[in-house]
Structure formats: C-alpha cells, structure tokens
Amino acid sequence: QRMAKNPLLLSVTLTVFETRGSSSLAGETLNRGLVYAIALDSMLTKLDGVAPDLARRLAREVAWAAHSKGDGAGTRDFGDDLALDAAARCGPGAADAWREIADAAQRGRLPLLAWFTARGDDRYRFAHLTFQEFLAAERVLGDFDDAAADADDVAKRVARLCTRPAGRPSALFERGWWQQVVQMFGDLAGPAKSRHVVKLADAILGEEGAEVDLAGCVGDRNAMTLAALLPEGRDVVRFRAADGGLGEAGCGALVRPGFARACLRRLDLSGNLLDGAATVALCDALTAARCPLEALDLAANRLCVGPGKRPGFETETFHSRKRGGSATSKLYLDYMYAAWVPDLSGVDALCDLAAATPTLATLDARSNALTEEAGRRLSLLLDAAPHIRTLCGVRVASLRRADMFRELALGPDLDASRPLRVGDRVEARFRGRRRFYPAIITAVRGPAGDELYDVDYVDESDDDRVVQREQNRERRMVRPAAAGPPRRLEAGGCLILAEALKRAGSGAKETLTAVRLPRQALAFDLSHWDPPPQPGDALGGDRQSRAHETGVNARPLRALLDALAAFPRVEVVDVRDSLDPGAAAGEALADCAVERNWTALGLGGCLLDPRALLRDDGDVRVRGQLKDAGVAAVARLAAAARSLRVSTTAVSSGGLARLLDLAEARPGLQRVNGLDLDEFRVRGPELRVLDLSGARLDRASTRMVLKLLDHCVVLDALDLSNSDLMPSAHPHPMTPELFGSGHLCNACASHHVLSVDLNLACQVCDNDMCGAAWRSNDIVDDLADALARRGATLKRLTLRSCCFGVMDGPIAARPFEHLGDVLRDDLVVLEHCDLSGNEWSAPRLTRWCAESLTDAGGDASSGAPDDDEDEAAAEARWRHHAQQWRSAVEADSESDGDDAAERQRANYSRTRIPLAAGFPALAAGLARRPSLLTVAVSDRRVLDCARLRTAAADAVDADACFLARPPPGRTDGDPPVPAPEAFEEVANVHLFCEAFKTAAAARPGAYPRRLRCASLARLPALCQTAGQAAVLSLFPDLDRVQLGPLALDLDGLRSGRTTQLVISAERLADALPVRDVVAPDRLERADAEAAEALRQDAARQAAARHAIRLQTRGCGRLVAAAVDCAKALTVVDARGLDLGEAAADVAAAARRHAGLRSLNGVAFAKIEAGTRIDLRARRIGDVGALALGRELERSRRVIDELDLRQCALSPVGVAAVLHGLGRRGAADRGAANPRTLDLGQNELGELGTAALARYLKADGRLEELRLSGADLPRSTTRAMVDLGLAFEAHAALAVLDLSRTDVPARVAAALRRTIEKRPAVPLPKEAKFAFLGAIRRRAFLIDEDSLRAIFGFARRKRVLRLGQDRQPLADVFNVRSPAARALVDRMESGELLTEDDEAIAEINDWLQRFEPRDQDMVRRAYWTIQTRRQQEQDADDGLEAFVNEGPPPDSSDSDSSDTDSDEAMGVDAEGEVVDDSESGDGEDAMATE
User: What value does the mean pLDDT take over residues 127-136?
Assistant: First the structure.
C-alpha cells in the first residue's frame, strides 16, 4: 500500500506482477528492493548488443559515481567522461558497452536513461532518481559481500559520504540525498544479511549498545531511514529523538517489530507530534517487547489532542512556532489548541504501560495539553505503580520519604542572574526586537553588574554557521538558552502534584518552605470549552457573553492550595505565568497568603509581598505586569491603600471588575492608576463637560471611567480623545497560539503595527494582551452601555484618535451594531459626533487571501465544455475564473506605482480590508440619528448632515456636503493641509451614502435623484470595491449619476431609450471643451508652425484621455450595474477606462443582452464570419478579451490566425483568451485552434505567461507564436521556465517571435538550445496523407527510403527571433522565493524607487518575511541597483559638462566603423536563430526560409 501511493512505484510494481506473475513471488517479501531488481532485469534484458550482467554492473558503477560525486554531494546529470571512468572499473568491454547503452538512450530505446544536450555536449540522467538510488544501494551491498573487502572499512566509507559535510548522524536525516539509498540497502540486505546493516548503523549512529541521539532531525519524512538503521539484531540501550516532527506516520514506521529491544532502558521522544493514536502504538510495542524501561519522556507532544474538532471550527489547522531565527529551525510546539476535542486513549495506554513495567522509574508527559481528567488518571499511578519515582517532573519518592524537602521547584528560574561567560549558549534580542534568537557569547566587557556582551547569532541546526553578529549587548537583552522543549504541568499535571502532596511524608510537610511553579500553565485545560457566540448565535440581553473562560480551569489549582494546607512552613508560592488562572484563582491565592502568612506570592510577572501590601495605607505601586489573578490578589491585599497603581495591560474585564468593586466599596481609596475617583463621586452630579483628552487613558482606566459615568447625571459633552478604545472582540475565543484560527487580534494589531505575519502575531506577544482580550467583555459594548445611560443629556461626543478600529467578521461587528443602535435610538439630543483619527479598516486574514487565490490562474486546458452545462453556468464559471485571475495579478503587485496615496500605505496595501464589517453598522446608526448636525470620521472633512437632509437642488453634489476643517492648532501660515488618507476617504463615501439613503427615504418623491460624486476617483485600487459598493446602494434612488467625466443615464437605460452605452475614453475626451479630434491628413497639409501646434494639440488630447482614465478609476462595478439594469443594449464600449477587477462583471452583464452586437470593439458576427480574426490596435482591453474568450469557447469554426497586437490586454485578458482557446482545443483536440497567434505589445505578466505555457502544452496545431514587444516577466520566474519547456515540447511550433522583447538570459539560452536540439518541425500528418494519396492516384512507385528523404526535405525549419538578452538581478543572485524575486524585479525596473523613504520602508517590511538567504540576496541586489544608478548619474553629469563646456582640448574625432557589432548567436545548419535586438520592424525582419 505504501508503494502504491507513488505513481512511479505503482507502475513499476504492476509491471513486475505483469512480467513475473504473483505465483513467482510466492515466499518472497515484496519490497522496493525486489520490485526495482525485477524491473531493471526486465529493462536490461531487452537491451541489444550488451550482456545483461555487464549492463547491470556498468549501471551500478555509473549510478554510484554520480551519487557519490563531490565527496557525497552527488549529481543527477552526468556526461560520457563520468560514465567511461565508471566503465574502466568494470573491466574490458565495458567502454564499448557504455557506447551501446548511450546509443540506445539517444534513440529512446532504453527507458532507464534520459538523454539531452547542453551546449552541444551529451548529458544523461536516470529516468527517475530512485533508479540511481537503488543501483547505488546495490553497489554498497556488493562491496559488503566482497570477500576481499573489509566490512568495517566499507561501512566507514559509506558513512562518511552519507554524513557530509558535518560528519554527524543528523546530517544524514537533514539532507535527503542518501536517505533512500540507506532504505533500499536495508531492503536488499533483508534478514539474511542484517549484519551488513548493523555495520553501517554502527558507523553512522555509533557503536552498538551506546546511546542513539538524533535530537532535532527525525520526523515523519525520514523515519523510514532511521527504521532501516535499526535492524532486529542491533541493541540500543538509550534512544533519543527529541525536538523533531514525529507524528503518527513516523511513529508507525519506527515501532515495527524489532524496534523495542529487550535492552532498551531510556526512551526520549519529547518535543514531537505524537498524538493519542501514535502513543497507543508506541505503548503496545513497548509492552509486547517487555522492555526494561527505566525512563520514558513524552513531554511536549500532542498526547491529549484528539483528531476531532469542535462544531463550527472544523477548518482550523495546527500551527506551531519555530525555535530560533533560521528558517531551517525545527518545529517547537507551545500551547495546544482548544478547537480540538481531547482524546485520552494515549493517556490510558501510557498508564497501562507504566503499571506493567516494574522497572520504570521516570515518566514525563508534561506539555501534552493534559486535562483535569488526564491528570486524574495519571495520578492513579501514585498508588498503582509505586515503582515510579518521578511522575511528570514531580519527585514522588522524595515526597513520600520522611526526608528534608525544603523546596519544590518545577520550571525555569525566573530570578536567575548569574553572570554569563564566553562560550555560553544564550538567546538574545536581535537589534532590540521583542523576539529572542539563539546565540553564543563571544566576549564580555565592563565591570561586574554592568557587563556588556558580544554575541554571535547562530543557526539552531548548525552551531558553526554564524548568521549575524552584535556587540555591546546589555544583560537585559540576553538570557540563558532554554534547554529542550517546554515542560508545563498544565491542569492535569497540577492535579498530579496536588495528589502527590497529599501523600507526602511527615518530613516533607515539616520542611517544605517554598513552592516555585513558574510558567506551568496550571489552569490550562483543553477540555474546558466556553466559546464566544458564533455567527448566527443570539447575544442575549446583557451582552456579557464576550467574557468567557475557554481553556481555563482553576479547579486543579484550588486542589493544589488545599493540599498545601498540610504544609505549615510554606512561605513562598510562585505561580507566575503568561497563561493566567483567572481572577477567582487570584483571590483564592491572596486569601491563602493572608491566612497562612506567606512572605512571597508570584502572579503574572510580579513577585508580591503580601505582608507589605496589607500594612501599606498610603500610595501602593506594584511594578511589573499583572494578569487577572495578580490584579484580583492586589485588590484583595491592598485594602488599606489610599492610592493604587498597577499594570493593567494584560488584564481582562473580569480582573478590572475587582478594582471597580474595591473603588466602590472603599471611599478611602482616592486614586487608581492616576484616575481621580473623587472627581466622579463628589463633582459628578453637577458635571456638564468632561474632557479627558489630555489624560491619554489606557484601556483599563477607560473602562473605569465608563463605569463611573453613572455619577454624571447631567453630562452635556464627553471627550475621550486619545483614550484606548480598541475593541477586544476576537473572531475566535483564543489567540492563534492556543487556538490556531489564523486571525489577528486587536491587541496584536496595536502592539505590532501590523508589520508581522498575521498567523504568528499572537505567538510573538506570548498571550499577554491577547489573553486579556479573549477573556473580556468588549470595550465597545461597555461604551455603548455607558452612552445609553447618558442619552437624555449628551449633545457632543468626541472620540478622536482612540484606537477605535474595527475587526472584520460577524463576531467583531456585533459590538459596533450595538453602538450604532445606541447612537440611533438612545442619544436623542446628540448634535455633534467626532470619530476622526481612528482606523476604520481591518487586518486582512491570511487564510482568506490564500483561499481567494486557490486555483489562481485557472487551467487553460481544463477539459472540454460539458455538454449539459447551460449558458448561465458557463457565464458564472467565466466570471469566477476572471475574478481569480484578477486576484492573482493583484497579489503579484503590492501597490500601484501611479498612486501616491497607496504608496504611502504600502505596509497596509495587501494586509488590510479597507472597510471592516463594523463600520457600516456604526455609519447606519449615525445616519439615522435625526438630531445629528455634523459627524466626522476623518481628520480633514466633516459631513454636514443638516445640509444633506435639506437638499433641494436638481442634483446633490457629494463633495459640497463635506466641510473642510484644518487640524487643531493650525494657523494661516502653516503648509497646505494634506489630502485625506485612502481609508478615511472610503469611510466618508460610505457615511455619505448612508446619510443620502436616509434623507431620500424621509422625503420620497421630493428628494433629488441626481448625484455628482468625484470622490471615487481619489480612492486607490484597494479601496475602490468598498467605495463602489456604497454608491451602488444608491442606484434605486437615482436617475443619473455623474462620476467625474463619466455620466450614467440610469433612467434612459432602464426605460430602453438608450441602446448604445459608449463611454470610452476617446468619446469622453472628445466631449470635453477645447479638445478637437486631429485628423492625420490635416497634419500632412499644414505648414511647420501649424503642424507643431497640431502635434501639441494631439499631445494634449492624449493627456486628456489619460486624465479621464485616472478620473474614472473605481467606476467598474458602477458601469457593470448600469449595463445590468439596462432594458436592451446593442453596443457597449468602455475602452480606455480603468475598470479594474469589475471587467468580468461588465462582460458578464453585457452578454446577458440578447441583442448585443459589439462589446469593447469585439464584433461577434465577425468571429463567425471567417478563418482570420484581426483585432490589432483595437485596444479591446480585458472586457473585450473576456468576451472574445467566451465566444472562442462557444465557436467551433476553424481559425487560422488570431491577431491581438496592441489590444491593451492585461494578464487577465491574455489568460481569458487562452482559456477560451484551451477549452475549444480540449473539445476537438485543437483542430479548430489557430495556426498563428499574435499577442505582441500586450502585457502578459506572470499570469499570462503561465497561461500561455499551459496552452502550448495542450495545443498541437499552433505553428507561429508572435510576442514582439510583449511585456513578459522580468526574471526567470516559474512561468518563464514553463514557457521555455512548452516551446521545447511543442512539436508543430515553427516560429517564436520575441523581437523587441526583453528575455532573461537563462530563458534565451534555453530557447537557443531547443533550436539546436530540434532545428526543424516534422511535416504535419495531413500533409503526408495528402502527398501519399496524390502519388497513389498517379500510380507513382516510391520506395521507403526515398519517401523518408522527401518528408525530411519538406520539414520546416524552426525560427527563433530574440530581442536583447537581459541579466536580471533576481537571476544573478539566484533569489528563490517568488515574492523576493518579484521585489527585486520591481526595484530593478524602477517601479519601486530605491531612493524613496517610503519605498525603503516597504522593502524592509518585505525583508522581514523572507528567509535569511533571500534577505541577503535582496540586500545585495539593492546595493547593486544603487551602484548602477550612481554610475548613470555620474555619466549624466559628465555629459552635461561636455555640452556646456565643450570637449577637452586634446579630444579628437574617431572614425565610426561600419562593421556589425552584434555578436553571433549560433546559427544551426538546419535551424535559424535571429537576433533582433536592434530591429525596427518585426514583420520585415522575419527570418527567411
């Protein structure tokens, strides 16, 4: 079954059964070794002229020479020199045998070898790498069987090759080159020759009986290699494969018979991915083998994470973080995910194994998401398995004895401050960033207590490779390196500890003084499921359902406190942790501290002194971060304080409720975190204006103010500007670290300024602010409730710059729906509302982006159209494909180079949603408040609601309804006010549309039905969809809409008066004043002055068309809606307009009109009229291309030529045309497809080039492909490689015209090699049949040789026309990732100006996402571009000096040479390669035949 998963192995296996039969395999174990042996025997037996035995020996030597070349580095491709050297070691006759084998490979009669040419040299490779690996394994086995060879020497030689270059066993598993050889060697050796495997295993892993340590390198992918090195005859006492990626598949490969030896004593599989099923298989194997296990370590796995997921969360994925800063670092798992339903089958198997193994003394299952029930079952081992001395890190035996037991410590020492020394492994913050990276101390300087350290950042997988260096790092930036995976007790381990303390001896009870359990996640319980409301769930009347405790279970911690009651001398309890146990647990700890007279209590990030807090009756300040438990404990302990200041950054509303209760219960408490409580208690009943804009309140203080507003019964104006009102609503109940939703919480959005990977953001901030957020009631709900209570008096509300952003999604929108309802219904006297300075966009979810690009680019040959597919389904399919193509193009280009506003938001451009789901609900509430006079959602403009409601003119001007306002403190001498931000402008558009609909509904029949709006043209491409959606909602209330120069007569279209919608850029430019059409003959007849004036007029006319294109940006969906609402249309022409992603909508809407004759210059009647479709210079655009592609798919008429030169096609349009051709080609195998295709002077891009490559692979009729002047990818991208391969594979393509097109040098070289290999195309079959029929009718007699000569003479020579070769920097520096390659191409082309500060910021933002190697290559490319431009600038300066000052005195003119300086490009005898880098006309410069 395992071999059948691989297509090659399946076909080879079936061939074995076909040739040998199942009866001949009786008694033999079928494995890969046997399958390949039989398959090679079959292939080599059919080889003529070479004995099978000699061919087999020669193949082994060649495979071994190729695989071990370069001291084990190996190669796939080799030449005759390597093969002849290998033949020399095979004895006489081997060289001749190789020549016969090579000839058979070149003639295609030996499927074992593949042949090709590289720059005129013959090159070979095995048809599949597994053949080479199998033959190399046969060679190794032959060396072991050689009686004259020393087996130990053979094993050492092979081990040295397998473990290069590091020379340690992990190199074999980290590099896959030798893994299959080792596995096949084990298959070939079998049980009969297992001694050879033992020898090789000793040479690689160490001497038999010693410890096998493969930490950090064994996972599911290479578990079979390790299994091959552990035959049944090899003893292993200690086995360690920690910090890898072993899951159920890898564990199944390891625990086959023979893995669990009778001598195995210590087994360490910590830090892997073992789940319940894998643990059951492992325990069954260990139990069956009766291993004398002494220690079993399964910490930091997935023991309790079951395969099932909670309802509604089935799409969640299991994320894991990487340890260290290198992309090759091993997976390092932290918390588990609450979306998974716990599975305790692995815990039960582990308990059975522990009870049945009397030698087992140490069992560790920490950091496995141990639930309370799992802890209860494991705690039964305390009585059922008394031989266990240490259980989950708890020293059970020491507690039972009556010995002295002063301190119980589990977890890291948070107070360790020992000085670091040179050579110590540490973790340091690179450049002061938040994350720690692995490093080594190289130097220490400075006095004691104030040391500075020099560190070398190293790759976690290779300590010898230094990544970066830094000097003079402070001690706070460096910490000792963590050893091994995390080991947290969690809720289950906490219960085990409680049960162990209950069984403690009298000596331990009398001597234990300190319990230190930092970072143990004592309340984390995977089974505690209390999610927030999901989409469609009711919120409830109290709206408190946001506050929940998913994954938090404090019962085991309470059990631990009860057990500690028997230890009277305990004074220190340290449970500091990033995962908070909750406010109730904090209060319980504080009560225990008071009752039992503890001297220290560790909570959150602080070590509290309970005695000092109880005594202090003045100003109490607690430094350090406190979670809910810490704040609740401080509120309970500091009962006598007059002023209290604590950190509330990571405190939820549950913890803050304790502070509010304390403030209400104790009148003596005057200030909390700087907030004067007496201002509300004493002066609140008379307070009319409350201005807290200068206080800059944090979120906790803002919550307190909202609660204290109950005292302000006559409040008239409220200003909470600059306060933290960031919503805490999460689309998931936990952070991605605990839950894995892939969303970004608002706390992380604020903390990281959206500059980190969205799936890792919550992991970086380590669950601090995120944990508080998902446990809190949303602060927007608190704001809405507070405003509702003051609705009868509040007239002015100011919330400027309050981090008042919104998350996207139904859950995050609910608090804003609540606030919108309050603004509409409860604030009955509200007149002015200022919400400017806030962010109304939202983070774009990375998973949604990935899903939107699924199957991006489409498949040009995705099968023939279904016979039962109706027209509506076909149109829906075309629209879906077009949207996917547009999404792929947008993903490739981060920002529009012509749009300054979008360049300013480069960091946001593709990681933000312009208008999140919460803002429409808020805008609807504001628009429906009748008393509201003005409302502001941006810094520069204010909507005049009163003017909009009372509009009485014929048309409403949207821009006139906004009042411009300068920023606060602005004077007349200040510089001009900058344009509004893009996201603010789209919020204004949406707010205006909501207010317009409300006003129109209030005055039906009397409100104007015409609208002028120019705001959409100012929106960048990212915001146009949201802006158009807002304006589209007004269409039922409008008869005419004016969008800059574009006017849409909706009433005429609906009534049928307008049957031709011509809104092309040329028509709109002609309609402008002082813009006359310039006839070409007029230029010829005019004199010089008049001609110059007319040329200038033509230039102005072109500029006008370009200006119209810019002014009509963001109107695509509106045009589509206008076309859709029309009664009957015959012509639709929108050429020259920037329709953006709505091009597919326009095409789909237009095609629904049965009488449509022309769409964007594509006349449908002409497509069916002849065999040549000529649309050159029609500039049909993407809309016309989509229509053309659909017509091509539907038509079955034979097309000989399709000319689309200069048609203004983008990659989307090119993909659409090729998709249509591919669909018709799949239906009739290309019989109706064109022989000549011209896509010159169009933009193909990555998407169009990939579509063209797919079309060429599926087509068999195309003879000429012309891409002269086309815009192809700048560097050797995947699409360019596929295009070169498609040209090589296409048998009929005779002419490829790339003149006046920059082609990467690598691709150009590959195309030339293709011409050298196949200089001519064969005569088409129909031509051969026609010739044979003609000579048969005339009774000519032609022998076979003469016929072959005639057909060979009639072959058509292939012609390749190339423009100028280009050496892009992305190829020079071998940039790997597509994103990094695209960034380098943009820098080199000038699209991303490397001198611009904003561009540099965007480059740095991208650099953070790349692997270290690509980061280095991009930096090198950047400095190369800078050097080139500096040289060009120097040359320009020299030329300017030459023009201004004249040539130097000693200069002399040199004769120009008439010799052609172009380099020869290698003209083949039977094919032509034409260099057209300086050719002017592609047609005249075509190669003649």
Answer: 90
